[in-house]
Every structure is written in structure tokens, then in C-alpha cells.
Amino acid sequence: MRAKILSSTSSFNGVTYNTNKTQNEKGELTRLRNFGYLQDTKEVGPNEVKNFLIAHSNRNSIVKKKQFHAMISCKGREYSKEQLTDIAHEWVDKMGYGSNPFLIVFHKDTANNHVHIVSSRIDMEGKKISDSFEKLRAQEAINEIMRLNPRHEAGKAVDKLKGFQFSTKAQGMMILENLGFKLREKNERLELIKYGSVQGSIPMSEIHHKIKSYEKDKSRSNQLKAILDKYSKVYQSNPAPLFEPSTSNLKQKHIGYRSDLGDFLKDKFGVELIYHGKEAKTPYGYSIIDNSSRVIFKGSEVFPLKNLLEQASENKAYQSKDKIKDLSIDRIGGKVKLQSALNDFPTVQKGMEYHALQFEKKDGDSYLKTSEGDIPTKDILSADQQLVLSKYFSESGEQSTNQNQEEFDLMPMLNIADDVDDEAVHGRRRNKKRKGDNELTR
């Protein structure tokens, strides 16, 4: 997901540009907010919208370029018109324009679904809304929104499940649990729960249909058997138990297992080994999630667990890509992760270990380590958040943590150049100009 601030102008040509697209069916006005009397009008023309924005902006006679124009784009058709509109609305609030008149227009005329936002840089009191570090804040706000938008995560999780073949309900549920969701069957649906709320669901009938249509892929099973036999002789295959991070002296909760062999297979072949066991005891079984062929195999069907555990190996160490990525977060990713650690977890300790954040103390100040250098935490946190972080350091007595924890997926950066028709909205003349007022409908 990418946010891009487009150039400011002294007029509101962004309105005309976007409304022209609605007229030729390449775009659709999806939201119009804070336009006073225009809100109750069934059909609004672009000139009315422009005049309202101009009148609103005339509260300030000093600022010349008063138009605020931005674009939010996703990869391909990953997000729908409705989803992009909701994301854009939340983004407008985070950027400080939520109380201003603004419109959102959805465009479908390029390879990537995207929306345009047009507003005024002047607030209700006649002051210019701050544009300091605007481009950085724009993408940072999108990252925060997508990180804290579990409904979109749930939708993607269900789509992933639908793409897999599996032979038992437990296997299908395992896909969703590995993506961080708690599950509950209710009213013939499987509900996906995160942050204490239902974020999505899938009919149980679809899961039963997937189970009935399952056919074992013998060819792929034999390939996996050969892979496991070969690399279990190289990397340590005995699974080590994992525990939920905790700052208390209470017994830590067992949450799973890992092995060097499992880390290697996931990075090299997209094959995940999921061990089944209780109370950190030796696993009694395992499953294989083959992301390449999108099939879940019972481990016993491919390579017996006993053989896997007894295989003599070279004990070659392996550093997973997840850990390498943890050590190379950029400034934006680091800030989002740090704020997530402080706000999204039961304890700060759990958040820090989940995101594998590293710090350094210098002259009494704390610094977050990123690929772009050490960043003072006071520069990226509010006063209240700084107090929480200081308390965490004083209680834990630690200045850094680099445990190998799963890194949450920041949305990939998208090259806006793909949207050729939107590269330079202002100053470009179209070959064809339409005459007359176009009508806007909501």
C-alpha cells in the first residue's frame, strides 16, 4: 500500500481532474465530507465543490497553494473500492484533514486500484495545516493503518485458506492459527478472532467441501520425502520448544516448536514444519504446510517423525531470513513497530520481543537501532510513550533484545509510476477536454 502527496496548486484543479474521470466512467466519487449545505444535495457539480473549497480556504490570505491532493494505491486489485475508501478516510484523519471538507474518488483506469483525496490545506480557523515531513508521515500513516486493520488481515487469511488443499478440519484451522487468529465455531461459521473481536468468518460448509475434495498429491509427497531425508542430515532437526515472552516469574506458556531444519525449509522451499506437542514435551506428530503446492500434508504420510528425530545430522547452524529482516528495519518500520510494541500487546516486554527491537543507551537517552542508523526514541514517541518505554527499561534492566520472533508483514511498497495516468496530475493538459459541468453523485 502506498500513499503519495501530489503537488499543491493555487486553485483546486484536482477536483476537475477527478470529476472528469467520474464522468467518463473511469472513476467514482465514494465519499464527500464536511461540505456543509452541499452534503444534503442529491447531485453536486464540480464547480460547486471547487467554490466551496475556495471559500473555505479564503480564511487565509497568505498561503497561496491551498489545495491538498493525495493518492493512495494498492497492488493490482488487492483492495476493493469500499476498502480503499475506508482506508483513505482513516488516513485523512491521521494526516490532520479529517475536520476539513474533503472528497475521495476511486479510480479503476490503471493496473492498480487507487483513490484520490482532495481537500484544503487551510483549517476551520484559517490556519495552515502543518506539512512538516509530510511525505514521510503519509506513508507512515498508511503503515500504521494497515498494521492495525485486522479485518483486512482476516480477509487475506480466509483467501489464503481457500487456496489450500487439506484433509482435516484441524489442518484448515492450523493455517488460520498460524496467521495469528483465535478460532470459534458459531452458527455454522468459523469465526476469526483477534484483539478480542470477530474480524471475519468463513462458512463451515466451505471447509467441509475442501476436505471432501482433497486428493493426496503422491508426486509432491515423494519430493518432500526426499527433501526431508536430505536436509535432516545437514541441519539440526530436533524441535526446540518456544514459550510466550513474559516478565513475570510465572511458568511461561508453551506456544510451539522450532528447529534449524524447519527454518531452512521455510526459507528455501516455502515448506513449514508444524510440530504437535503439549507442555514442551517431545512432539507426538507434525504437519507439513507446503506453500509452494498449497497443500497440507500429515507428516506421517511423508516422512515418519521417529526417523526425523533420530536422523544423525551435521548440526549445521542456520540463520533464518526472518531474523535477518528483524535486524534491518528502516526508520518508518522501526517507528511503527515501536509504537505497536507499546500499544498492541498485554505487556511492553511481549511487544519488544515480538518485533525484535534493538536499542542502545547513550548519555541517558535511548536510541532505536535501524538500517538507517540509531534514532532517538524521544524523536518518534509522545511524552506518555517515552515514560512507558523508560519504565520498561528500568523494570527489565535490558537495553536491547534480539530474540527470533515472527516479524509482522509491513505492506510492500508499490511503485506509483505504474499508474501512468496519475503521475503528474497538475500542469498536464489532456488531449481531450470536456465542456460543461459534470455531475457528481454519491
Short description:
The protein has helices at 13-23, 46-57, 81-95, 134-147, 150-162, 169-178, 204-212, 218-231, 260-269, 299-302, 305-310, 321-326, 331-343, 348-355, 383-396; strands at 2-5, 27-33, 43-44, 67-73, 102-107, 114-120, 182-186, 189-194, 197-203, 240-243, 254-258, 271-276, 285-290, 295-298, 359-362, 365-370, 373-376, 440-441.
Rg for CA atoms:
26 Å
Strand order of the largest sheet: 1-4-6-5-2
Report, as a whole number of angstroms, the end-to-end distance. Answer: 25 Å
Helix content: 25-40%
State the CATH class of the largest domain.
Alpha Beta
Going by helix content, strand content and strand pairing, the class is: alpha+beta
The average pLDDT value, as a whole number, equals 79
What would the keywords be for this entry?
single chain; 442 residues; alpha+beta; BirA Bifunctional Protein, domain 2; 4 domains
What does this structure look like?
With 442 residues, the protein is an alpha+beta fold. It folds into four domains: 2-146 and 417-441, 2-Layer Sandwich (BirA Bifunctional Protein, domain 2); 166-212; 235-315, no CATH class; 324-396, no CATH class. The protein is built from 15 helices and 18 strands. The chain has helices at residues 13-23, 46-57, 81-95, 134-147, 150-162, 169-178, 204-212, 218-231, 260-269, 299-302, 305-310, 321-326, 331-343, 348-355, 383-396; strands at 2-5, 27-33, 43-44, 67-73, 102-107, 114-120, 182-186, 189-194, 197-203, 240-243, 254-258, 271-276, 285-290, 295-298, 359-362, 365-370, 373-376, 440-441. Strands 1-4-6-5-2 form a five-stranded antiparallel β-sheet, sandwiched between helices. Helix 13 packs antiparallel against helix 14 (348-355). The radius of gyration is 26 Å and the shape is globular. The model is unreliable at 323-327 and 398-439 (pLDDT under 50).
